[in-house]
C-alpha cells in the first residue's frame, strides 16, 4: 500500500497545475485551519457562550437536542463537497497488485478526508469543556465515541450514496420523507421519528449499547469495501450518471434534426449532462432555487423592493450566473472544432443565448409558488426575468470572454477552481447591481412600481437589440479565435 501512496503523492506533485495553483492551495489550507481553530474555540467555550446568550438549559441536554440537526447538516455538506476516493487503476492492470489491496487503499484513503476533522474539532472540545463536567469522565468518553462513530458512519454512507444510491428515486423519496416527518413531528406533533438525542443519552447511561453504532460503522465500511472490490474494472467504473444523461440526451435527437441551431443547443445540453463539472454546476444552481424561500421567510423587513429585486435577479438568473460565467471554458479542447467550422459564428452565439433564455423561462415557471408572498413579488420576478433575458444573458456572454481559462470537465466543481480568473470575481457585480441602478431613479422620482416597470422595459429593449449584439460577439470570436483555441486547450 505504501507504493500506491507514493504514486499518489508523485502524481499530485508532478501535476501540471500543482505549481500554478499552489497559491490557491495554500490559501485553502490556511482557510481550513482557521475554520477548524474557530470550531475548537467555540466548542471549548460553549458554556460561556450559553451564559452570554442568557440560556439556562442544561448544556448536555441542549447539545443532545441539536445532534440530529448537526448530523443532517454534516451529511449535506459531505454530499455537496466531499469527493469520493478515486484511483486511476489503468497503470496497475499489468502489475501483480490484487484488487483486494486497491480496494482497501480506497477505503483507507477516504478516511484521510479533511471533512473528517470537523466532528473531532467540535465534539472533543464540547466533551472536555461541557460534557465531562456535567456527566463525568467515563460517560463523557462514551458520548464522544458515539458522536465520532456517527460522523464516520455518515462518511461511508456518503460514499454509498454517491456511488450506488444517488440515481435512485426511491432512496431520495425515503430520505427526504424521513427528514420531513421528523421535522413535522418534532415541531407540531410532539414526537421524534429519529430521536438521536435520546439515543445519545441512552448510550451514555448504558455504555454496552455503544456496540450498536460500532457495528453499523463496521457494516458501512465493509459495504464500501465490497463495492470498490466488485466494481474495480474499467467498464464498471464508467460514470453511471453519464449513462443516465445518455438516456435523456437520446430523446433530443428528433429536436436536433430541426435545424442547425437546435443541433448546437442539443450538443451543449449533452455536454452538461455527460460531464461531472458541468452537472455539478447545474446541481448547485438547483440548490439556490430555494434562496428566496430562505430570505422571504425571515419577515416583512426582508421583503422590501430592493431586497426582492436582489433575490429575484439571482433566482431567475441563477443558471446564467452559475453556468454562463464559464460559457466558453466549457468547450475546453473543443474550441478548434467549433471555431474552424464553416458554420457562421453568429449561429453558435445565438445557440448559447437561447440556452440561457430557456433557463430563465424554467426558473420563471418555478417562481410561481412565491406568489404566496404577494403579487408584488411576482411582478418583480417577471421584470427581473425579462432583464436577465435582455441584458444579463448577453452581458455574461461578453464578460465570459475576458481571459477564459480551461476546465477539465470530468472533475467535480466542489473546491475546484479551474477556470476561475479575475473576471469570475467581478462578473456578478454588474449582473446584480444593474437592475437596482435602473430601479433607483425611477423609484425615487415616481414610485416603486414605475421602477419595476423600468427594469422590465430595459430587458425588452435588450431583447429587441439582440441581433447587433450577436454580430458583435461573433466578430469578437472570429477575431480572437486562435487565441481562444490556445488558451482553452489543456
From TrEMBL:
| Residues in the signal sequence | none
Membrane-spanning residues: 22-41, 61-80, 115-135, 141-161, 170-188, 208-228, 282-300, 306-328, 355-373, 379-397, 417-438, 444-465
Q: Does the keyword Disulfide bond apply?
A: no
Tell me which InterPro entries the record gives.
DUF5687
Enumerate the UniProt keywords alphabetically.
Membrane, Transmembrane, Transmembrane helix
Q: Return the protein name.
A: DUF5687 family protein
Species name for this entry? Answer: Marivirga arenosa
